[in-house]
Amino acid sequence: MDSLSRVTAEIVECRACPRLVAWREAVAAERRASFRDEEYWGRPVPGFGDPAARLLVVGLAPAAHGGNRTGRVFTGDRSGDWLYRALWKQGFANQPASVHAADGLELCDAYVAAAVRCAPPANKPTPEERDTCRPYLVRELALLDRVMVVVALGRFAHDVVCGLLAGGRGGAARPRFGHLAEHVVDGGRTLIDSFHPSQQNTFTGKLTELAFDAVFARGRALIEAPSAAR
Prior knowledge:
The protein has helices at residues 4-12, 18-30, 67-70, 78-89, 127-143, 155-165, 199-202, 209-224; strands at residues 48-49, 55-59, 110-114, 149-153, 182-184, 190-194. It is an alpha/beta fold and 230 residues long. It has a single domain (4-228), classed as Uracil-DNA glycosylase-like domain (Uracil-DNA Glycosylase, subunit E), CATH 3.40.470.10.
């Protein structure tokens, strides 16, 4: 039978996309000057969190000097600072920051994954790389059978999640992406969109901390609503 640990083991050993393998390993070998004394992970980054999660967060891909360095998704970069702080505020995390994989971070009722598991050049996976990685998220969704709310961080993640949960049903158009937009998808789950907490969005003010926090406050409200009881 499949399991999250089995998916994790297969992700970590994956070498299916030559361009991504070459890039992640080159970054790990060259290193950023500020991390020159650290040993980079340099492999695909699996999902992380509570197997009984009711909230699933899906990002784009590991950061070259974040998850690709630390070995844990959204760990060691500024996007992760925003994400785990927001999760902590809503009781989904035991601490507000994540610096490295052994820093004691634990998630409660939440699981974090990515649409693509290797750091891509310029943060832009190709359609082929996206599709090659898709089965891992399919399996995680099947195994995380208590998930009621999926948060998509950015349009790329939104499109991938919609392709799995809302694409093409009865010929209907896919839901449109928009910050704090909500969509009911397969299984009665709710998809909530959010701008990605990348520096491109946070430094320019396109995404504020208040607006980002609102996404997870809404997710908490949905899974705790009386109608959500199982």
